[in-house]
Amino acid sequence: MDEISKVSKIQPEISIVLPVYNESENIEALYTRLTDAVSALDLQNAGAEFLFVDDGSDDDSGDLISELNRKDPRVRLICLSRNFGHQAAITAGMELSRGDVVVLMDADLQDPPEVLGQMIEKWRAGADVVYAVRQKRKENAFRRFTYFSFYRLLQRIANIDIPLDSGDFCLMDRAVVDEMNRLPERNRFVRGLRSWVGFEQVALPYERHARHSGKAKYNFRKLLQLALNGIFSFSSFPLRLATYLGFLTVLLGLLALVVLVGAYFIAGHFPQGWTSLIVVVLFVGGVQLLILGAIGEYVALIHDEVKQRPNYVVRKIIG
Ligand code: UDP
Ligand code: MG
Hints:
Structural class: alpha/beta
Helix content: 40-55%
Bound molecules: uridine-5'-diphosphate, magnesium ion
Radius of gyration: 25 Å
Order of helices and strands: HEHEHEHEHEHEHHEHHHE
Shape: elongated
Number of helices: 11
Largest sheet: 8 strands, mixed
Mean pLDDT: 86
Low-confidence stretches: none
Strand content: 15-25%
Distance between the termini: 32 Å
């Protein structure tokens, strides 16, 4: 390691990427807690940048942030031209960040800035990625259950090892960020890509807080979209499901044949089954639709990739 990178390994310039979508009630508190946490890091002459990505908010989040930028030049603001979604906003922040280490953090204070110190410590000890793993979630039971099941399902069927209960909250070395920025894919499931690039990855347990203020910006549709993206981008299990289910239905059909023919010879009569016919038709029809849907998901992903559209459009950059 040369002299300069050795210095930055101790005193890194740190970029904190904060995706913002209608978070005006949280900006002030977030800024205060962030600056406190960063001063506690004792970065000395090495600096920090607070890279807010305004994902097309229609409240005054953008104004509040440019206000902060006038007081504190460490605050930078990237305004996207419309709402592109959380993953696209993070991607924009990662691509425009300049630090030796990059931290991804939600703007609603669910990811406590106070964890930064521990993250930097693990990075100094040699980790390239420090990903935060939730111990507890202060959310309603339905959400907790769906998140819990999703991560376990994803881990079972994904082609790569995606850690359980870890969201986008993490610290990454510049080398990792550069590699992730090089990945050309459009449907970005950032936490999956982060696992995919490899390097030295270390978990950091933390307690996920409740939202500081306001409502979750992920509605059910967006969450479902994220979950489906995670599954279909990192697993070909749904495609193979067609084969499994196909086998199963053929087996069931054969079994039915044997039973029915057996019934004819043993009991001497053949069931006049309208019901059984309908059940079979519905079942097979359902399986076909399900599989068609899975194939459709992959076609949609391919479609998105071939369009070659950028992940986001920047309207302006302040700072
Ligand atoms: N967010 C965003 N664009 C969106 C939705 C959300 O930039 O379209 C931001 C949001 O402002 C927050 C973070 O992404 O900082 C996480 O969103 P949210 O708190 O709604 O998600 P949850 O915590 O429920 O997963
Ligand atoms: Mg949140």
